User: Which sequence fits this backbone?
């Protein structure tokens, strides 16, 4: 069995120190979150399923040089994964973003987004039929 090569690893930090049993890691195609000491819970998100990334940094987090990277995905078991209190959160978010794009390119996946007021997507927009117009 081939071991996983990690591109990034960190722990959830308290007061800027890695004093937690929550571990985060990123491989070429997956994002992992492991919690617990005696009872271990391991979650993973396939990178090609990531839809959006969000970064939040409270004043306290900024003082200690940490932040929270929120990962929104289309994964059924883990639709929302927070990487809480990680060091260098901007770099982590960018690293995840680059690997998400690479994973989507590798699988030749692209999603299209509907733009507009939202009415078009729900079918609520009135469209005039050109046959109904009277000609002069």
Assistant:
């Amino acid at each position: 069995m081939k071991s996983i090569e990690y591109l990034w690893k960190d722990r959830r930090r308290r007061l800027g120190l890695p004093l937690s049993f929550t571990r985060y890691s990123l491989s070429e195609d997956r994002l992992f979150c492991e919690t617990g000491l005696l009872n271990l819970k391991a979650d993973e998100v396939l990178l090609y399923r990531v839809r959006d990334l969000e970064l939040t940094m409270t004043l306290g987090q900024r003082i200690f040089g940490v932040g929270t990277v929120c990962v929104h995905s289309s994964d059924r078991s883990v639709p929302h994964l927070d990487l809480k209190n990680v060091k260098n959160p901007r770099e982590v978010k960018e690293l995840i973003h680059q690997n998400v794009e690479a994973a989507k390119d590798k699988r030749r996946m692209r999603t299209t987004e509907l733009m507009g007021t939202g009415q078009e997507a729900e079918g609520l927009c009135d469209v005039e039929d050109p046959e109904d117009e009277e000609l002069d």
